[in-house]
Amino acid sequence: MEFRRAGLLYLMDILSLIENRLGETYTLHRRYVNPQLVRVLEVIGYNRNYTRAGGSRLMDAQGREVLDFLAGFGVFNIGRNHPLVAQVLKDVINMAPASMVQMDVGVLAGLLAEALAGLAPGDLEAVFFTNSGTEGVEGALKIARQATGKSKIIYCDRAFHGLTLGALSVNGNEEFRGRNEPLLPNCVPVPFNDLKALEIALSKKDAAAFIVEPIQGKGVFIPDPEYLPGARSLCDRYGALLIADEVQTGLGRTGRMFAVNHWDVVPDLLILSKSLSGGYVPVGAVITRRDIHGKVFDSMDRCFAHSNTFGQNDLAMAAGLATLHVIEQENLVEQSAVMGGYLEKGLRELAGRYELIHDIRVKGLMIGIQFGKPSALSLKTGWNLLHKMNEDLFCQMITMPLLEKHHILTQVAGHGLDTVKILPPLVIDQADADYFLTALDAVLKDAHKFPGSAWTTVKNLGLRTAKTA
User: Fold this and answer.
1) What is the spatial distance between Cα 222 and Cα 207, in angstroms, rounded to a whole number?
2) Which of 12, 107, 319, 366 is the most buried (most CB within 10 A)?
3) Is the model's pLDDT at 355 over the cut of 50?
4) pTM over 0.85
């Protein structure tokens, strides 16, 4: 109790509280939050204790600057701590707004809804605000089921739509589904990018919706050109709604405002979150057609057919409006496309020189670098050894030295995929891209030496992990 009371003494001076307790960060998390995450960070050398950030840069407690090519899993499209968003939030706080009255509606929510409707494809104009991507998925599933009167939901293998129970029911990753069965009934998986399988699943005409990430976040899997238009056509034919989960792909990440724009597809429901917040206040949105919305909120008695407490809070709405302004004023959608093309060119050049790279998948600044078994006998020996120990070990040989030696933050794209995922803020410039490519070149050069220190380091990591599991 004394431990907690000591902290409360500083609550009136947050700067002093942080300064006095910063050295206890990992101790606090180990004791009160998630000790297993702390163990992971310490084992892979990611326990940096970051203290400040701006744009595409992080600063750790030792004063080391880190180039952020993870962007909070896609939250910081406009960069970290953007001053315009910060100023807008300060202005709103200084207004002492009447936020979350609940039995009223706020102007900021109306303005953000208007702005999102103006950006959304087709005739999507009815907006429901949420606090996160997974809450947006939950809301979209409910809306689809209520609007159609059907309960079946079709989703894709390897899909990631969140970790709450409903979202998890349409999550195609077994490592997350485990220990949670039974999940929601009548949720049917199909392979991603397979129109024949999708048609079979839809053909009984009993599906409320097909939910899909236009580009799968786990692995950065990009569909064939005909897939999403074909899915749109099949949903129309068999009476199902098409839900596009743009939580990570939306708002410029792929070089278009929304990923569905690449294929001129208009979904029935579109889910946003992550970068809409500007990295300050959690916010999300489900945007749908007015006729679909009207089937759920179809009477005064049902004005709260789906609701939440914090979804329309004024700070979140202001952060969303400011973020959209920054994206437009700084041409970040175009910037994403240009810098994505620049990085793709550099990565393909590296792939031509290093046989461990098997594929490069790029849409804007959503990039997957997939590695695969090499043909050289010595490298193949190392590859087999690491995969026998743990199928997720190899990519740590890329991500760990990128951070330790070159101060670039990246991470793997998903379990068992041998893929490193690149999600930098959309504000990066050519110098940032060149620095990353040069660093990756050096890391790959070390990884192609077997036996060598890079392989030994990761093998020892696997041994330590096995002993402490």
Assistant:
1) 24
2) 319
3) yes
4) yes
